[in-house]
Amino acid sequence: MAPTVAIVGATGAVGTVMIDIINNRDSVPWGEIRLIASARSAGKKITVRGQESTVVELAPEAFDGVDIVLFDVPDEISAEWAPIAVERGAIAVDNSGAFRMDPEVPLVVPEVNPEKVHERPRGIIANPNCTTLSMMASLGALHREFGLKELVVSSYQAASGAGQEGIDRLHAEIEALAGKQVGARGGDVAEALAAAGLPEETPFKAPLALNVVPWAGSRKDDGWTSEELKVRNESRKILGIPELKVSATCVRVPVVTTHSLAVHAVFEREVSVAEAHRVFEAQSSIVLQDDPDKLEFPTPAAVVGADPTYVGRVRQALDFTNTLDFFVCGDNLRKGAALNTYEIAETLVK
Ligand code: 2RA
Description:
It is an enzyme of class 1 (oxidoreductase). This protein is α/β, with parallel strands linked by helices. It contains 9 helices and 14 strands.
């Protein structure tokens, strides 16, 4: 019998993208596709693959008869409900940060470590943070060929990484500054936003329009942010290199959706731009856009809405041996969240 899949958080930002992905697949391996959400959204009707489906309320019984449950909800909801789904007989695939670093929970990117879906003592599989995920297809492919040793990355993270609140704030700031000749004097952007009545408190800690903000996530020890530590810890776990040297600086930029990263990757073996191109071209989830003569390179505004990761600006570092510098763009709501979670479920039933 075809397996039953359920989506918890079906009416949220990532859940909505998940349903869009399911609706646009050529075929799906599922019998029933059950939609689950909070009491507030229960009863809502959503069309999934041509059939109207009614959202059911999150409750233990909602998991009965379900084989795989995809969680697109905040950490605390996943932490509470994923174990309940497992108790009811399902495998939980979780898109939150609740279980990512649990040694008994695999952290999976299907192009990189698909075999890990079968090593899940707690019955839970975790989906990585979107910042890490955006570069994993490219790094996984390069690591297989050349052996990754060290990684230095700077992120350029979109406002939607901070949820709908982040998108709304960026749009409000852009609207408040439209037509204003600001940005030539320190502090005048913040003054214009205050004069337009925008609250000083923002999800980005500083104005994002006409600006970049070197802060994403929450404060951790020694000046690091949670996003920077996730890049380090999750990269090590996914790639299976516990000693990988990683240093990350995470920056928020005035882009609505699609995270970008500038990657400086050091390998054990000799690499070249031509060989890196060959590796990227062989990976179906990567689009290589790298022609300096034609000024071809990826940008987040062009990549948003796309499933693959886009890679460009590939260079052999001038002053470092066996080292590539490159730029990646990945839609943080698709491959960075809903798509990878869904692909984990597909991997489970393959
Ligand atoms: C962000 N990576 O961009 C986070 C979202 N999970 O804020």
